[in-house]
Specification:
Elements lengths: L7 E4 L2 E4 L2 H9 L19 H21 L7 H12 L2 H10 L3 E3 L6 E3 L11 H19 L13
Antiparallel strand pairs: 1-2, 3-4
Helix pairs in contact: 2-3, 2-5, 3-5
Length: 157
Amino acid sequence: MDKIIAIWDIKDHKITVLKRDLFNDAIKSLPDGRYINTTERIYSKYSGSQRNTIFGLAYSIIKQGFKELGWENVSDTFVQEWCKEKCLPEEYKEMLRKEHEDSCVNKLTGEVLEMPFRLTITKLTTAWANEYFENMQRKAAEDLSVQIPNPDASKKT
């Protein structure tokens, strides 16, 4: 039997399962029997090795992929913004949108100025960073015909 891995958030002692429909389908596929569940906390900040993999490996290969397809003046910023737009997990993007409340009000005129919404990776968890990397691997292969290898787990950063 393959493992069923579910990620959930706990807030006010209540569990919210992410990708609940996939989790439900996986549970329905199990035969009757006794199972054990082990819960492990996902740290709120993605790790240094994940950061190095994203910036040092994935972004550089994606940048090269654009160049090999004939694109010129491909900046690091362009690659990062392209990846964030195309590859960040949707749940993560939704969380950022919900947290985005940057606006100010002119007390004399009532005019409201809102800051534009901008994607960032600063709030990635370890799980979301893994999903982001997997999405970059898939998108780079599909759109740029380049392969991003899995990071070498034996190398410590």
